[in-house]
Amino acid sequence: MSDATPETLEAVQAQTVALVQRIQGGDRKAGAALVQRASGRLLAMIMLRMGPAMRRRHDPEDVLQEVWLEIFKSLRTFDPARGVPFGGWAATIIRRALDRLNARDQGRPEPEAAFRDPNDSEPAIVEEAAPISSPSLQAYRRESVEHLVDAVEALPAEQREAMASYWFDELPAGAIAERMGKTRQAVYMLVSRANKTLAAALRSEADSLPASWLMGPRA
User: Fold this and answer.
1) What is the pTM of this model?
2) If both were cysteines, with which of 14, 51, 167, 171 could 175 make a disulfide (CB 3.0 to 4.6 Å apart)?
3) Is residue 52 assigned to a domain?
4) Is position 77 within any domain?
């Protein structure tokens, strides 16, 4: 596993954005490719944000299905030119889905699910999402994601925050540094140390999708 660099993050973002733009242009195969490419990462994001207690009450894959539906309903609103990476945009949808789940648990009114601009008259990309919006990860992949999440949760707190912000939310090092009150170089060091720890923890799964994703997704 190589150390984190801005070029690595840019490559992650560029490949994802290319798929999203194809979907926005009506390419159905690109939608299936995005689900295949990103489901492991989104599931890991969901599991980390749920925490162990919430995961005992709810199946994270049920949340993943809800998140994919919302992503495809809202995908026309995603514009990389606004400066928000796909990971950060998806993280907002994940947080809203988990807020709704918490509200159900506590018997509170649920927040709105819609992420779309209420003034947007364009139809949602539901017809493209319908056949692929409820992915069920194969057992080996679910197990790999769970292993990854266990390894991330075992990291020291600062490494965990830096790693999740950089790789999952796709935030640039400068934004993470500002959030954590550190220098960019310190953030790179935290991510690099987390990468090395995760590489060792996932060594037996070197060919699994979550492990290879940490090294940069393949085209």
Assistant:
1) 0.79
2) 171
3) yes
4) yes
The reply to whether 90 falls in a domain is: yes
- Which position has the token pair 């159905």? 28
Helix pair angle (184-201, 173-180), 10° resolution:
100
Domain residues for the domain of 133 are 6-214
Q: How many CA atoms within 13 Å lie on the side-chain side of 77?
A: 19
* Encoded amino acid at 68, one letter: W
| pLDDT, tens digit (0-9, with 9 covering 90-100), for 135-188 | 567 777 788 888 889 999 999 999 999 999 988 888 888 999 999 999 999 999
For the chain, the helix, strand and coil percentages under 3-state DSSP, each to the nearest 5: 75, 0, 25
Burial class from Cβ neighbours inside 10 Å (0-12, 13-18, 19+) for residue 123 reads exposed
Q: Looking at the domain assignment, is residue 1 inside a domain?
A: no
